[in-house]
């Protein structure tokens, strides 16, 4: 699953709340509109959680294969207009089941995806 963590900037939400609203809307529209190309069948759903110190969004996938996982991650960066200030990563369901969501070691993180994007632009 792709996991996004957006810290709360203030008690009232403010800027981070607006960003999360945008991310959630774009994720839902991408799922409904099948915006993941040939990898649509691998995207199973999404999840949102409002924690005390952060917002968590997840995009669930039905596989851990590198090609669809990477393609979906790259597409999410485009759709969500992500920059370096939002942490996100991909963890397998198996890893999360073993260690729990907080301690699972990611297979990809935001730096991997941004590196791939910058390599594509060259």
Notes on the protein architecture:
The chain is an alpha+beta fold. α2 crosses α4. The protein is globular and about 35 Å long. The mean pLDDT is 82.
Percent helix, as a range, is 40-55%
By secondary-structure content and strand pairing, the structural class works out as alpha+beta
Largest sheet: 5 strands, antiparallel
- Please state roughly what percent of the residues sit in beta strands, choosing from under 5%, 5-15%, 15-25%, 25-35%, 35-45% or over 45%: 15-25%
Rg, Cα atoms, Å: 14 Å
Please provide a brief summary of the model.
43% of the residues lie in helices and 23% in strands. It contains 4 helices and 5 strands.
List the helices and strands and how they pair.
Blueprint: E1 2-7, H1 14-32, E2 43-50, E3 54-61, H2 66-79, E4 87-90, H3 93-99, E5 108-109, H4 110-121
Antiparallel strand pairs: 1-3, 1-4, 2-3, 4-5
Helix pairs in contact: 2-4
Please give a handful of descriptors for the protein shown:
single chain, 122 residues, alpha+beta, 5-stranded antiparallel beta sheet, 4 helices, 23% strand, globular
């Amino acid at each position: 699953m792709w996991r996004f963590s957006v810290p709360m900037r203030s008690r009232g939400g403010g800027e981070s709340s607006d960003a999360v609203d945008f991310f959630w809307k774009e994720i839902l529209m991408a799922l409904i509109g099948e915006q993941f190309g040939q990898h649509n069948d691998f995207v199973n759903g999404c999840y949102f959680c409002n924690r005390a110190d952060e917002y968590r969004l997840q995009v669930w996938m039905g596989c851990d294969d590198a090609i669809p996982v990477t393609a979906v991650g790259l597409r999410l960066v485009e759709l969500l207009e992500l920059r370096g200030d939002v942490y996100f990563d991909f963890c397998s369901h198996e890893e999360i089941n073993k260690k729990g969501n907080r301690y699972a070691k990611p297979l990809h993180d935001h730096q991997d995806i941004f590196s791939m994007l910058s390599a594509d632009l060259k």
